[in-house]
Specification:
Elements (H helix, E strand, L loop, with lengths): L4 E2 L25 E6 L2 H17 L9 E6 L2 H4 L5 H4 L7 H8 L5 E5 L11 E6 L7 E5 L18 E3 L3 H10 L4 E3 L5 H9 L5 E5 H6 L8 E3 L13 E6 L3 H7 L5 H17 L7 E7 L5 E8 L6 E8 L4 H14 L8
Parallel strand pairs: 1-14, 2-3, 2-4, 7-8, 7-9
Antiparallel strand pairs: 4-11, 5-11, 6-9, 6-10, 12-13, 13-14
C-alpha cells in the first residue's frame, strides 16, 4: 500500500462550489412532485428531505404540497447481475432523470453515490444534505467477536457476498483467502440472504442502516482507513432543472457546505479516473479541525493484487481541483489494465 500526502499552505473560510443560477423561471403549480427510487431506504431519505425542507420553509408546514413519485429503475429491477454488466451505477437514476427531463417531476432525491459524475444536460445538483456516517460495515447472520483486526471475525476461506468491486478489492487485498459471491438487493433482502446462509457475511453502508433505524445490524464497522468508501457515500443529493430558479433558491436553504465540498472533491476524483463499474475506486474527503479538506483516493484490481491509495489536502474552496489532482496522480501510477 502506498500513501502519499501533499498540502497547500493558504488558510480561508469554508466555501464550496454551487450550481450556476439561471434567470428563467418555471410557472409553478402545486403539488411539487418529487422523484425517488422505490427502495425502502430511498423512500426514507426522500421523506427525511421533505421534513427538512418543511423545517426551513414555514410556508410549507401543514400543507400537502409534495407528491411522491416512486420510480422503478433498471438498477433495482435487475438483481441477478453486477451493475457493470448491465450498464453501470447510472441505472439507479436513468428513469428518474428521464422523468425530470420530461417534466413529470420537479426534483429528484438520490443517494449521491448512485449518480454519474456527468449529469444529463439540463439537470444540476441543486443541494447536498449533511453527510451521514460514510463508513462500510460487515454484517453476519450471527453474533461475532473480533479484536483490533476488523476482519478477524471472518473465518479462513469465508464466502462474502457483495456486488461492489471496491469492497471486494479491499477485502481481498487484506485477506486473499476469502471467497466472493454476487449478492444484490436492498438492505432488507441482503440481511435476509446472510441470515439464510447464502454467504457467511456481506457488507453494507452504515449510512443506510442508520437511516433505516437498523444500525444494530452492523456486526463490524470498518473505519475509512481500513475500507475507503465509495465517492459521496452517505450523502443525499437533490437534482432539479438548471433553469428552475425558484427551486434552486428554495433548496439553497438546506444546502450543507461541508457536504458540498467533500462531495465535489470525491466526484472530481472519480471523474478524472473515469473508471467503469468494473474498476474498484474509492474516495473519501473530510473537513479537518483546522478547516482544511483532506481527500483520500484509492484504485485497485478487483482481485486485490494491486491497490494504490494516496491522499491530498487543501482548501475546501479548491475541492474540485484537489479531486482532479489526486485522480490524475492515481491514474498516472496505475497499470492500464485496471481501467480496462
Amino acid at each position: 500500500m502506498l500513501l502519499d500526502t501533499a498540502t497547500y499552505q493558504d488558510d480561508e473560510i469554508l466555501t464550496a462550489p454551487a450550481p450556476k443560477r439561471r434567470t428563467k423561471r418555471h410557472s409553478r403549480t402545486l403539488p411539487l412532485r418529487v422523484g425517488t427510487r422505490r427502495s425502502p431506504l430511498a423512500l426514507v431519505q426522500t421523506r427525511n428531505f421533505l421534513e427538512l425542507l418543511r423545517g426551513v420553509c414555514p410556508v410549507l408546514r401543514g400543507m400537502d404540497v409534495f407528491e411522491e413519485h416512486a420510480i422503478q429503475t433498471t438498477g433495482d429491477a435487475v438483481q441477478d447481475r453486477r451493475l457493470a454488466d448491465i450498464g453501470g451505477k447510472g441505472l439507479f437514476a436513468k428513469e428518474i432523470d428521464e422523468a425530470q427531463i420530461a417534466g413529470r417531476i420537479d426534483f429528484a432525491v438520490h443517494s449521491l453515490k448512485d449518480l454519474e459524475t456527468r449529469l444529463p444536460p439540463g439537470i444540476v445538483l441543486a443541494c447536498t444534505l449533511k453527510r451521514e456516517d460514510a463508513r462500510d460495515t460487515l454484517i453476519f447472520g450471527h453474533p461475532v467477536e473480533h479484536n483490533d483486526d476488523p476482519y478477524a471475525a471472518l473465518p479462513h476461506g469465508a464466502l462474502v457476498g457483495t456486488s461492489s468491486v471496491r469492497r471486494q478489492a479491499q477485502l481481498l487485498h487484506a485477506r486473499p483467502d476469502l471467497r466472493m459471491a454476487l449478492i444484490r438487493g436492498n438492505v432488507q433482502s441482503r440481511l435476509s440472504k446472510v441470515r439464510a446462509g447464502d454467504c457467511q457475511a456481506s457488507l453494507l453502508a452504515l449510512a443506510g442502516l442508520k437511516r433505516l433505524g437498523m444500525e444494530h445490524e452492523a456486526s463490524v464497522i470498518l473505519d475509512t482507513d481500513i475500507m475507503v468508501p465509495a465517492a459521496a457515500q452517505g450523502i443525499v443529493g437533490v437534482t432539479v432543472h438548471e433553469d428552475d430558479v425558484e427551486l434552486l433558491e428554495m433548496l439553497s436553504a438546506i444546502e450543507d457546505p461541508q457536504a458540498r465540498a467533500v462531495a465535489t472533491a470525491e466526484r472530481a476524483l472519480l471523474g478524472v479516473l473515469d473508471g467503469s463499474c468494473h474498476t474498484p475506486i474509492g474516495g473519501h474527503a473530510r473537513i479537518l479541525p483546522n478547516g482544511r479538506l483532506h481527500l483520500v483516493g484509492l484504485v485497485a484490481r478487483a482481485d486485490g493484487t494491486f491497490l494504490l491509495r494516496r491522499s491530498l489536502e487543501g482548501l475546501p474552496k479548491d475541492a474540485e481541483r484537489i479531486g482532479m489532482e489526486l485522480g490524475a496522480s492515481l491514474k498516472a501510477d496505475t497499470p492500464r489494465d485496471v481501467f480496462a
